[in-house]
Design goal:
52% helix, binds flavin-adenine dinucleotide, acyl-CoA dehydrogenase activity, 10 helices, globular, Butyryl-CoA Dehydrogenase, subunit A, domain 2, single chain, FAD, Butyryl-Coa Dehydrogenase, subunit A, domain 1, 4-stranded antiparallel β-sheet, 10 strands, Butyryl-CoA Dehydrogenase, subunit A, domain 3, alpha+beta, 381 residues, oxidoreductase
């Protein structure tokens, strides 16, 4: 097993890190304050090939391996947790749905534009009454001529109000439970009946709009169905497995940001005539923060490795996401503690890291649901 990055992976980390330090870090507080989708930064990231990192060059992707994609997402999230979600939802979720389950025409028409960053993608699975319990969804797609008429609504959709392509899940057979779910490509600009109800005012993850969507007699042609009818639930689970590796990456990136900030603060803040980093209590906090971030990063890379080898990685991706998201919250919490009272103010980014980290424990499978998944896999082994 290799524990070191290849030369190419190191170069990717350095390139993204440089961009993040120069362009994202100086803007992060403003993005957090104003909660606006940073379209100009997305254009810059598109120029660097960061909007289609893991997809082949034939679809205008960057053709990177999954380790490199995770490293890229970790770096972006180190700068801004909201930007990390924008890229993860666009790539790991919407992009993956098209890449894995789209036909050639669909890939050329929609995936290519996502990979170049000309268009933004979203993944619309959750509903008000169907979060962890996906098959409880009520959005329905009824056969209607050469297509389907969709009625219903989705909640919590990252990028939902700015997306050009939304991969949507709806019931095509309401009596068939999870086997009655199908997926479709929706084009908000073209499809009458697509309504953005509004966006959430959230604790953190600012800059990534989280939208409520409604579909009123929205007709979509059959050519926009992804795969066969009834395959949507399995497609969603497979997509979320890969997505969890990148939410682990987002978490590690936020944990690293919290650690770096706390370390430099501890080295310059003086109490009792010496830097607080001289106190063993502070040193031990920093030691634990670094150890946890490194362990989370290794779990993330192990899951990425299995994915790249085409081996089963359900348990490992769930463990990577579960552990990384929980330690990111813990590390960010200690970051605030090391800052004392200043950590509780907006004068320092420590509190933003805490708010951004919390989300990773909720989306793409809550920690409780992931523990269910891990336990099931463990007991079946
Ligand atoms: C900012 C944000 C962005 C999001 N982005 C997207 C997106 O882009 N696309 C999308 O489709 N969805 C998205 N989501 C939705 C997210 O995936 C759901 O919020 C999540 O799956 C939980 O669903 P819920 O909120 O309905 O909570 P519920 O499912 O109601 O869960 C409530 C509580 O009950 C627990 N619980 C539920 N079932 C079980 C069980 N079987 N065993 C043990 N505990 C259980 C949960 O762990 C949780 O603690 C986003 C959510 C947020 C907050």
């Amino acid at each position: 097993m290799e524990f070191t990055l290849t030369e190419e992976q190191r170069q990717i980390r350095d390139t993204v890190a440089e961009f993040v330090d120069e362009e994202v870090v100086p803007r992060a507080a403003e993005i957090d304050e104003e909660d606006e989708f940073p379209a100009d930064l997305i254009d810059d990231m598109a120029d660097l090939g960061l909007m289609g990192m893991p997809f082949p060059v034939e679809y205008e992707g960057a053709g990177l391996d999954y380790h490199s994609y995770a490293i890229g997402l970790e770096e972006i999230s180190r700068g801004s947790g909201g930007l990390g979600t924008v890229v993860a939802a666009h790539t790991s979720l919407a992009g993956n749905m098209l890449y894995e389950f789209g036909d050639e025409t669909q890939k050329e028409a929609y995936l290519t534009a996502l990979n170049t960053g000309e268009e933004i993608g979203a993944f619309a699975l959750s509903e008000a009454e169907a979060g962890s319990d996906v098959p409880a969804m009520s959005t329905a797609a009824e056969r209607d001529g050469d297509g389907y008429t969709v009625n219903g609504g989705k909640l919590w959709i990252s990028n939902g109000s700015v997306a050009d392509t939304v991969t949507l899940f709806a019931k095509t057979d309401p009596d068939a439970g999870r086997k009655g779910i199908s997926s479709f490509v929706v084009r908000p600009e073209e499809d009458d009946g697509f309504v953005v109800e509004g966006t959430e005012d959230k604790l953190g993850d600012k800059g990534c709009p989280t939208a409520e969507l409604r579909f009123d007699d929205m007709w979509i042609p059959e050519e926009r169905r992804l795969g066969e009818e009834g395959e949507g639930f399995v497609q969603a689970l497979k997509t979320l497995n890969g997505g969890r590796i990148t939410i682990a990456a987002r978490s590690v990136g936020i944990a690293r940001a919290a650690l770096n900030e706390a370390k430099s603060y501890a080295q310059q803040r003086e109490q009792f005539d010496r830097p607080i980093s001289d106190f063993q209590a502070i040193q031990h906090k920093l030691a634990d923060m670094d150890t946890k971030a490194r362990a989370a990063e290794l779990l993330m890379h192990e899951a990425a490795d299995l994915k790249m080898r085409d081996e089963d990685y359900i348990k490992e991706a769930a463990q990577a996401k579960l552990y990384a998201s929980e330690i990111a919250r813990e590390v960010a919490n200690e970051g605030i503690q090391i800052h004392g009272g200043y950590g509780y103010t907006k004068d320092f980014p420590a509190e933003r890291y805490y708010r951004d980290a919390k989300l990773s424990e909720i989306y793409e499978g809550t920690s409780e649901v992931l523990r269910n998944t891990i336990a099931q896999q463990l007991l079946d082994e």
